[in-house]
Request: fold
Amino acid sequence: MAYAIDKQGTLDLVGGSAEYEFDVGVHASTRTVHVARATSGTIKLCTWGLASDGTFTGAGGADVVVGHGTRTRIVVFDNHRIVVLWLDASSALRARAYNTGGALAGEAITVETTIANFDVVSVGVTTGVQQPDPGTAVYYAYRQFAFTTLSANGGWKLWMGAVTDSAEVVVGPVALGGPGDKVALSCASANEIVNGAHPRKAFTLCRDAGQIKTRSWRVASAGVTSLASAAETKPLGIGIVHGMSIAQGNDVFATVVWPGASNDTARLQLVSLATGGAMSVYASAEIAEIPRVFARLQWYGCDAAVAYTTPDGHLAVAAWRFAAPGSASAARSVLAHKEGTEQPTQVRLASLIPSSDDDPVSLVTLSRVAAGTLRLVSWRVHKTTLVYGPVESTPIVIGTKP
Reply:
């Protein structure tokens, strides 16, 4: 089966933002795009609709002021709860949640002070008990997210956070990650089932004293547990991680670090996790692309969307397929790629995953050019089908599946 990527709509945002001061998330069922960005020290939440043809519409209403600060990230959950995290002027990490856009806001909280950097990823859905009376259990669904914090005083931590239906953000538990910086974080796409609980595997990569250190974790509201770790002596300029679940309890992670064997390549490694978290590198390859960010193309399997810049500096998006453990396939196969005209200094990526793997997947990139201008671009990843004509003289042609 062949794949193709179409570039669809574009939208240039008004005003500029600095590096790391913007992020994009999407709500798939309503095709809503949410952007968190800092402009002149003000953190704003901006919202647009995404039409079926990839056009950005103004259906989201006016921008909402979240707080004041610089670096910011966003997580959008399936129940349309939104969490925005940012660093304020005192280097404190702050968080605030919203219910279905910016109209219903929760209270902003302070997570921790003297923070230099952080990373965040959506985790999943669990069930808890909210203020039960004696003998009465009031159950509610809340959404969780994992995030890392890098202290300005040295060392990093891995946290669990959650947002309730009423847009209240709570944080904890937390575990020490140790020394290091350039921390990258990802979670598998499916929960495990362990003794009746539903935790999820996570994976971190960081730089410490000339080494690249990786670690597997089990994260849940009951605790954050370090499972296994590894280290190698190698320089790290850029490092990213992408987690996937082939099936429940069968989790793999793709790590990409630059430089690879030279400054012209990056090294891709595929890591499988045993039930207890033991890590095994089962495939490796040198690749010409240096990915900036990954996003999911499916809930189960080893396909992923990726955004990167070409050697001449242009933004490109691609669909990659990673080999599964035990497979004889190449570590990475390029299913499709598409190059844009943008020349970004930084890019974020989000995906709208459909209910069927046969349906097209919409991608949204938010990129920044050198002058600070931000641009939203929508893309469409879809399968193509072979259309056969008569045998005599009509050739076989490639048609696009709608």
Observations:
- Confidence is low (pLDDT under 50) at residues 128-134, 391-398.
